[in-house]
Amino acid sequence: xxxxxxxxxxxxxxxxxxxxxxxxxxxxxxxxxxxxxxxxxxxxxxxxxxxxxxxxxxxxxxxxxxxxxxxxxxxxxxxxxxxxxxxxxxxxxxxxxxxxxxxxxxxxxxxxxxxxxxxxxxxxxxxxxxxxxxxxxxxxxxxxxxxxxxxxxxxxxxxxxxxxxxxxxxxxxxxxxxxxxxxxxxxxxxxxxxxxxxxxxxxxxxxxxxxxxxxxxxxxxxxxxxxxxxxxxxxxxxxxxxxxxxxxxxxxxxxxxxxxxxxxxxxxxxxxxxxxxxxxxxxxxxxxxxxxxxxxxxxxxxxxxxxxxxxxxxxxxxxxxxxxxxxxxxxxxxxxxxxxxxxxxxxxxxxxxxxxxxxxxxxxxxxxxxxxxxxxxxxxxxxxxxxxxxxxxxxxxxxxxxxxxxxxxxxxxxxxxx
Length: 418
Hints:
- This protein has helices at about 1-15, 20-35, 40-50, 55-70, 70-85, 90-105, 110-130, 130-140, 145, 150-160, 165-190, 200-215, 215-225, 230-250, 255-290, 290-300, 305-320, 325-345, 345-360, 370-380, 380-390, 390-405, 410-415.
- The chain is mostly helical.
- The longest helix has about 35 residues, at about 255-290.
């Protein structure tokens, strides 16, 4: 195991893609240390992606891509902006609300940062300054990791063999908690109303009409799941078909070239995710054959759940700085499941803890993906992006502490649905 650990670290240090590092190390352990046949590893690669639950990922990505390339996202943001812009902190509050809303459709943090950022960055910069706008939009994009339908939750549910629907339910309150704390901070630091425009019911109804079909999409997705009409995977396909119909036939603003361009973007991202899923599964199986989960369970058996949660939070925050959520979930979850079972920690609670930690990692240097998205979208240096994020790390970490140690805040929802 020492040689395999060194091999993994060397691959990462040399800048190889994470999936190559995971796959190469996993093959080394299974073939050279466990004497497994290569044909068995090939079967593991294919079996890892042939899961019904994972079929939700490409459909949710497609729904997000269609929102991004059409006017659907802009219509939604314009509607929200008209509602809250006349209040204290209205423009940045719109950024929080729009990020939460977009997250209920896409589940992609990078897409949320880019889509909402392109629309609202000028308005928030004018109202609260460029640095605040930069930090707010970069950090709020990570809400898509927490708010259902979260792709990270889908992967965690599939890996831990627990209900994705239950995970989605428990993710609603934590996502609203994070958004709520950031909203209170926005109101506290804002000292004026950004617009003197009076509310017009006629204008409100016009904007509602323009955004109606996109505003009801979250209700279609989540209402369909919890109303028993379809599973989360089926909900993803409904979301993709719905977004396609709205963009092409109702708003009539998307031609075939743009439509196929959105499909291409979604499939490129989907391919990256599924390559990581396959390679992470091989790596996880190698760790299982090497009895790493059993050794970790024995090592942590004397810890209390409170101490273990503190340790795992620190560990996951560190992991999130270097690994994308997909890789982290697929590698770490098989190690945590037996430990959580031994310590009596609910796997759904652990899923929320992991999800929030990895959401923070999305905008934490050196390798947080949202940092690079913001660099490209807002044309800012890495130093400027990182400097703008300081206050938002505080609110995310405070939310993480609450979520970690007050599970009653969100665990009641699955029980209520039962």
